[in-house]
Every structure is written in structure tokens, then in C-alpha cells.
Amino acid sequence: MLLGILFALTAGALVGMQNVFNTKVNEQTGNWTTTMLVLGLGFAASFAIGLAIEGGGMFTSLRGMQTWFWFSGLIGVGVVTCMVQGVKLLGPTYAVAIVMTSELGFALLFDALGWLGLQKVPFTLHQLIGVLVIVGGIFVFKLGGGRESEESSVRKREALN
């Protein structure tokens, strides 16, 4: 369990760092170049590391995979694009807080309904309260942060164009 927690904490740190980097790349290039760079480099690194560690055997497990799983990479395009725009418009902390809440809420929904090939997990009041507490925390965070300047608001709108 401790190893799982360590991996999850590391993933959180890496995602937070990647969001900032992606937004900075996007300021220099654009949405699609950023997405291509992020996912292309991720593919190249995963492919090289996979071959080095597992060799050609890394492809044998693909045979029994359900067809619709092959398209999961397309979801990554939406993730990178939406995240970069969210960070650009809201700032990293607020955008990531909303993404994490959305992630948790949908994970809870997928578990409770047994969607996407998951085993059904009973929905409890404790889970609902946990998600609502996180949503409440985001409101407190945003309301307690003060108002953004008109100049900052104009820059964010211009960034979308």
C-alpha cells in the first residue's frame, strides 16, 4: 500500500509540473503543436523504454484487448488540450483542483455503475460527502483568492483568440 501511495504522490507531482510546462509550450506554439509534442514525446519515450525493458514481448498482450480500448489515446488529446486551456484561463492551482474533483466524481460514477469494464462498487453516502467537501474546498479557495484585475482578465480572453 505504501508503494501505491508513493506512486500516486509522484504522479501528482509530475502532472502538476507537466501542466505548467505544457502551458508554457502553448504560449510559444499553440494547442495542436503542444498536444503533438506532449503525446508524441510520450509515445517515443514509452516505446523506447518498453522495448528496452520488455523487448518485443510488450506487444503480445495487445492481442486480447477489446477494440474500444485502442482508442484511449484519443482521450489524451482532449486531456492535454483542455488542461492547457484550463491552466491558461484559471491558473494551475484552480484548474488542477477542478480537474481532480471532476476526475474523482467520474471515477466514483464509473465505479458505482460498473462502466468501462469496471466491477460495480456500491455507492455510499461517505463517498458523496467526500466529493462535496472537495467541491466546497474549491469554492472556498476561489472565493478566498480575491478578485483578478481587469487587465489580467483581458489578457486571458486575448489568449484564447
TrEMBL record:
Alphabetical keyword list: Membrane, Transmembrane, Transmembrane helix
Domain of life: Bacteria
Pfam families: DMT_YdcZ (PF04657)
Cited InterPro entries: YdcZ
Transmembrane segments: 32-56, 68-87, 93-116, 128-145
Stated name of the protein: DMT family transporter
